[in-house]
Amino acid sequence: MKQALTLVPLLILPFVLNDFWLTQVATRSLILGIMALSLSFLATYLGVVSFAQATMAGMAGYTIAFFGPNSVGIGVQLPFWVSIPLALTLAVVSGGLIGLIARRSRGIYAIMITLAIGVAFFYFTRQNYALFNGWTGFSGVRAPQIAGLSLRDPLPLYLLSLGVAALALALVSGFVRSPLGLTIQAVRDAPGRVLALGISVTTPIVAAFAFSGLLAGAGGILNVWYQERISSFSVGLGPIIDILIISVIGGLRHPGGAFVGAVVFVLLDTFAVDLIDRERFNTLIGVVLLLIVIVAPGGLQQLASDWMARLRRPEAPKKSTV
Amino acid sequence: MNKLKMAASALALCAMAVPASAEDVKIGVISILEGAFAALGQDGIRGAELAVLETGGEVDGNKIEVITMSSDASPDSAVNAARKLIEQDGVDIIVGPLSGSEGLALRDLSKSYPGVTFLNGSSAAQDTTLRDSSDNFYRFGGDGAQWMVGVGDYAFNDMGYKSVAVIAEDYSFPYTQVLGFMTEFCEAGGKVPEKFWTPIGNKDYSSVVYSIPQDVDALFVALGGADAVNFLTQYSQAGGDKPIIGGSITIDQSILDSKGPFKKLLVGAPAGTPTVGDYDGDEWKAFTASYTEAFPDGFSAPSIFAHHYYMSAKAAMLALDEVDGDLSDNQAAFRAALNDLTFTTPTGGTMRLDKNRNGVIDNFVTEVYEREDGTLGNRVVKVVRDVDQLLGQDEEAFLASGPVSRDNPSCP
C-alpha cells in the first residue's frame, strides 16, 4: 500500500513539469533506474556485481533498432508486437548466457568476467557492420505508433516508463519471495549448504542473471526509444560505469534505491554544467558522488529512510547504518 | 524519493518562471570539452565566440547570448546536449558539433525541432548533408572528402605515385577522407590494392606494418593524434621507408613537433586540409590577428575547429543582420537568408551553400618541409577554390556510387 502511495505524486508530475523536465529528467531517470535495478537485484539477492548489464540492455536496444524503423537502412522491419518480445527474449537469453559463463566466480572475479564480456560486446558492436552498423550504429529509431499516438511523445513515454518501473519493482519483490528467489538468496548466503541439500547452484545463478536480463532489456528498449538511436557508445564503458554509479549512490539495500540514484545522477549530469565553469563540471560531478559514497555508505535511499525513522521516533535509539 | 521529486518540481517551476527577453537571440554551442579532444573542442568554442565578439555582442539591437554545452564525442551525448539547449535554455540556433557521428545524430535530431536552426561545427561525415538531409541543418564548411580534394591528383601527377595502400581508422570520417583521396587518385589512373582499417585508439600496428604490400609507391595514412604517432613510429622502426600521404588530421603541428625516427618519412609528405595555420593570405592573417588578440591564451593560430565554428557562427550573425533579427514564423526569413548567403571566408574564398545546405569551400594541398632550424612545418603547395560536395562530378553518378564504407570506393 505504501508503494502505491508513492505513485500518486509521480502521476501528478506530468501536470507540473514542462516537456524538458518530464522527458529529459523524469523519464530518463526512470529508464536509467530500471537498468540500475537489474544490477541492484543481482548485487542484493545474488551477491554478484555485474558489469554486463549495459550489454543485456544493449542486446534489447539493438534488436529493437534492427527490427524496427531506422534511418540507416540495415535490418528487417517487423511489427512492434513481434520485435518487443523478441528483444526481451534476446536480453533474457544473453543474461542467462552471461550467468552461465560467470556462474563459478564471485566477488572481484565475477566483476572481471562480466566487465570482459561488456567490453568485448562494445568492441564487437563497434566493428561489426552487418548487424550493429559499427561506430555509427543505428539512428532515426522510432518508437511505435499506437492509434496515432507516438510512444515517444513526452507524456506517453513518461507514463510507459513509470508503468514499466512499477512493474519491474513489483516483479522483483514478487520474484525474491518465490521458491526460486529464495533459492537464489540461499546461494548468495551459503552455496555449500545449498549443494549439500542436493540443489544445483547453476540453475538459480543462471535464472538470476536471466531475470536481470529481463529488467535490463526492458530498460534498454525504453532507452532506444528515448534516445531514438543506439550505437557502440550506448554499450561502452561509460554506460557500464553509469549504471554502477546509479546503483551504488542509490543504495543496494532496497530495489527502490536504483531510482533514487538515477534521479540524483540525471540531475547532476544535466545541471552540473550550469552550476560551475563549463570546463570543470566533471570535477563537480565526481566530488558530489564521492561525498555521497562517504556520507551515505548504504546509499541515498538508506540515508533517507534512516532520517525518516529518526524523525518519526525521536526517542528511539540511533540505528546503525551499516 | 517523493521529497526529491518535489524539489525537482519546485526547481522546474523556478526555471520556467525566468522569462527571456523577446529581443535576445540565444545561440547554443556544442563542442567536446572533456576527454582527449577537450583542448581542440575549446578552440571550437573560441571560434564561435570570436564571430559573436566581432558583432559587439548584438545584431541590430538584438543581444546575442552564447550558451555552451559539452559532448564527449558520442552521438548520444551530442543529442542530450542539444535537447538541453533547446528545451531548457530555449536557444534559437545551435552551432556544433565537433565530430562526424555526432553530426549525423544532430542532423536526425534537427528534424524533430523545426523551430531551431542547426549550424554544423566541424563534423565532416559526408551523409550529414548529402543523403537524407534536413531542412534546418546547415554546414558552412566541407565534408572529409572535400578536405582531401587536390591530394589524389597531386600524388599521381606531381609525386608520381601509381599505387598506394591505405591505413585509416574504422569509422565514418576516415571513410569520407579515403573517398576524397581515391576519387581523384583512381580517376587519374592510380591503384589502391589494399586498405587497412584499424580501430580508433589502436596501440599495436605490427600486423598492419608487416602486411603492407612491397610493391606500393606510398601509404595514405588517415589516422589522428596518438594513432598516427603510434603507426608511424612502429612503421619506421620496422624499417618501412614508403613515402607518406596524410589525411586532414594526420600531419598536424603536434605530430611534426613530436620526437621520433619517423620524421624523415614525413619530409615532403603531402596532405589535404581546409585550414593551414601559417597560410599567408591577407584574410587569414587578419583572422589570426583578431583570434590571438581576443584569446591570448589560445593556440598560436586558429585550429581547424576554431576556423569552422567561426564560419558557422559568422554565417548566423550575417543572416541575422540581414533579417534584422527576425526569427518569427519558424525562422523562415532567417533560413532564406542563410540559403542565399555569400561571404568571404578567412581563407580568402567565397562561402556559399549548395542545395543540400553544404558549403562550397577552399581546400589546400600542403607538404611537410624542413625549416632552417631543423624543425618541420607544413607549407601550402596548392589552393583549390570552389570545391563542392560532389567533388565536381555529376550528381546522379556520384549518388549512385552509394554511401562510403570500408569497401566503397574501390580500385584495386
Features:
heterodimer; A: 322 residues; mainly alpha; two-stranded antiparallel ribbon; 13 helices; 4 strands; B: 412 residues; Rossmann fold; 2 domains; 5-stranded antiparallel sheet; 39% helix
How much beta of chain A, percentage-wise? under 5%
Quaternary state of the chains: heterodimer
Number of helices of chain A: 13
Question: What is the level 1 CATH name of the largest domain in chain B?
Answer: Alpha Beta
Number of helices of chain B: 14
Elements of chain B, N to C (H/E): HEHEEHEHEEHEHEHEHEHHEHHHEEEEH
Based on secondary structure, the structural category of chain B is alpha/beta
Mean pLDDT of chain A: 90
Judging from the principal axes of the Cα atoms, what is the shape of chain B?
A: globular
User: How do the strands line up in the largest sheet of chain A?
Assistant: 1-4
Class from secondary-structure proportions of chain A: mainly alpha
Query: End-to-end span of chain B in angstroms?
Result: 63 Å
**Biggest sheet statistics of chain B:** 6 strands, mixed
Question: Compute the gyration radius of chain A: what is it?
Answer: 20 Å
Q: If you average the pLDDT of chain B, what whole number results? A: 89
Q: What number of structural domains do the residues of chain B give?
A: 2
Principal-axis shape of chain A equals: globular
**Tally of discrete structural domains of chain A:** 1
Main sheet strand line-up of chain B: 2-3-1-4-5-6
CATH superfamily of the largest domain in chain B: Response regulator
Strand portion of chain B, in percent? 15-25%
